Here is the input.
Amino acid sequence: MENVNVWKCSFCKRISENKKSIQKHEKKCFFNPETKSCATCLWFSPLIADPGYPVRCYLDLLEETPKGTRKQLKTKCERWMNKKIYFDHETCENDDEMEENLLNGNEDYFKNLQRLSLIKI
Here is the structure.
């Protein structure tokens, strides 16, 4: 048996024996908020992984693909918003109001929360 050191991505479960490989991966990892990808976006559904829940963007930004295939997910999305906003329950007195604004794709509602510094992301 041999002891092996590996490097792990700070954002997902990817591992490698090569440090440079993981550093390169982290710059484009879908779970790195800096890539502004669907995996960390407020508008991406499901917010919590659920295999039975349909994949969709509440702003309808995902491109349709042929039936039976997965939707094309995005990176560097100009309308990306960090999903941590939704999980910060201290930002809104009314969770139902927040959920309704999410499902309706109300960008202004969440931008206003950020502007008022009610949320820290």
Observations:
- The longest strand covers residues 7-8.
- The chain has two domains: 1-32, 36-115.
- The radius of gyration is 17 Å.
